[in-house]
Specification:
The N and C termini lie far apart (113 Å). With 78 residues, this protein is mainly alpha-helical. 91% of the residues lie in helices and 0% in strands. It contains 1 helix and no strands. The longest helix is centred in the middle third of the chain and has 71 residues. It is rod-shaped, with a radius of gyration of 33 Å.
Length: 78
């Protein structure tokens, strides 16, 4: 009977430590997933800002180009 109790206790200890390790792993995994999701949100926001900046740059360049070509027209000063 004593050997059975020792075996059961050893089994219980192994299972308890296994579950504890599993829970720790799951917590670390959840932390990693949350971090990745936050990083993806920041990446999307950054990409949107880049796209908006690119559009503004393109508009400013086209305006400058139009003003420059108007100044080169033969009757620009008339």
């Amino acid at each position: 009977m004593e050997k059975t109790q020792e075996l059961f206790k050893a089994y219980n200890d192994v299972m308890t430590s296994g579950f504890a390790a599993f829970n720790t792993g799951m917590q670390q995994s959840n932390t990693l997933i949350t971090g990745m999701m936050d990083a993806n949100v920041k990446l999307v926001e950054s990409s949107q800002q880049f796209a908006q900046s690119s559009v503004k740059y393109g508009e400013a360049y086209m305006e400058w180009l139009l003003d420059t070509t108007k100044g080169m027209a033969p009757n620009a000063g008339a």
